[in-house]
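Before relying on records like the one below, remember that each one covers exactly one chain. Contacts with other chains, cofactors or solvent are not represented anywhere in the record.
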Amino acid sequence: MKISSPLLGTTFELPERPGRIVSLVSSATETLFALGAGDAGVGVTPYCARYVPGLGAPVVADYVSGDPEAIRAVRPELVVATDGVQLPLARRLAAAGLPVALLPVPQSRFGILENTVALGALTGRLAEARALCDRLERACAELVASAPSPRPRAYAELWFGRHLRRPGGRAFVHDLLWLAGLEPVHGDRPDAYAPPELDEVPGLAPAWVIVFSEPEHPIDAEALVRERGWDRAFAPRVLASTTERGRNLIHDGPSFVETAAWLRDATAA
């Protein structure tokens, strides 16, 4: 199969069922295992093991940095990356002659399903991918059908290291909140991730403040709310999201439905 990437300016031949895959995307790594292609993994990033218990593939790169020769050393037939902040790394690897295929960063849960089908096509497992999408769609439909009315309003805050962002209407995080039975207060914004205007949040009066942070830069969500005076201004309930599988607000692998279910249970308490 011939794989072409306009963003990378490359074309390469891919075996019908590649047996040596490097996944630089934790969601793709989780999906590969869900499709039965996990044994083909010969290289991952440090973050992939969070979503695949007992992952044995060696770490060959970080999410945004990596040595092409270290990846070439594991002789991949396919390298999976994304077209988001990972794009500069993907371009360096492709320029070095490595067989890189790009997945788009999903803007909704439907983008997650699209990427699942794409990985199924790349690995010769389309039937398995379609079946996985059916299971994910059923789980989403059950969550939507059982959503409370009215939905509690929620403000989500994402700390990518020291960089603060909030999800808008073009982020799959919006869908996670929606599936959890919440109404994202920035769901009408036509962007994906933007720096929040913190002064406007009290006026939006969310019932919940949900904060994601990484272990390398942990954020105390309760303390953050107190420091901003939000506990006095509108007294939201506070929930912390982590990098743990099923509790990670920014992870777009198949376990996103587990995260939505966790959010539903946590905010219904």
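The longest strand covers residues 153-160.
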